[in-house]
């Protein structure tokens, strides 16, 4: 009965910013919380992940320096701050949670995540 709910998507011009939120319900494990994205016809791509137990973060090379993942444990919410957006960032963005924590070689792989939100659309135009 774990539920993840994303919000904050929308349309923005290239160079702009968006902040995505993901509130999780019924999640009591201490694994990873991550953000993924998927464009039509393309494979789901890991964007960022954070370890609940340690607070460390990892990013895909394509977004490093532009995106920041953070968590507010009191609100049961994980965020993705997206700056300097590019048209290639256009995708459906999903948040996800895993039951267990994973090392850096797995933290951005969608196959290790157990719970998923329904997604929020991000469209970047130029």
Question: Would you write up a description of this structure?
Answer:
The chain is mostly beta strands. It is 0% helix and 48% strand. It has no helices and eleven strands. It has strands at residues 3-7, 10-13, 18-25, 32-38, 45-51, 57-59, 67-72, 77-82, 91-97, 115-116, 120-125. The model has no long low-confidence stretch (mean pLDDT 97).
Helix and strand topology:
Blueprint: E1 3-7, E2 10-13, E3 18-25, E4 32-38, E5 45-51, E6 57-59, E7 67-72, E8 77-82, E9 91-97, E10 115-116, E11 120-125
Parallel strand pairs: 2-11
Antiparallel strand pairs: 1-3, 3-8, 4-5, 4-9, 5-6, 7-8, 9-10, 9-11
Q: Give the overall pLDDT as a whole number.
A: 97
Beta-strand residue percentage: over 45%
CA gyration radius, whole angstroms = 13 Å
Shape: globular
**Low-pLDDT sequence parts:** none
Based on secondary structure, the structural category is mainly beta
Order of helices and strands: EEEEEEEEEEE
How far is the N terminus from the C terminus?
40 Å
Number of helices: 0
Biggest sheet: strands, sense, closure? 7 strands, mixed
Helix share bin: under 10%
Number of E-state strands:
11
């Amino acid at each position: 009965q774990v539920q993840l709910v994303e919000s904050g998507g929308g349309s923005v011009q290239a160079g702009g910013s968006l902040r995505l939120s993901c509130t999780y319900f019924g999640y009591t494990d201490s694994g990873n919380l991550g953000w993924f994205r998927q464009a039509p016809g393309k494979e789901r791509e890991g964007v960022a992940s954070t370890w609940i137990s340690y607070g460390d973060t990892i990013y895909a090379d394509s977004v490093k320096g532009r995106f920041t993942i953070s968590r507010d444990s009191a609100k049961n919410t994980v965020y993705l701050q997206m700056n300097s957006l590019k048209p290639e960032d256009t995708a459906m963005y999903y948040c996800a949670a895993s039951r267990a924590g994973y090392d850096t070689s797995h933290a951005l792989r969608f196959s290790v995540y157990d719970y998923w939100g329904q997604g929020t659309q991000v469209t970047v135009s130029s």
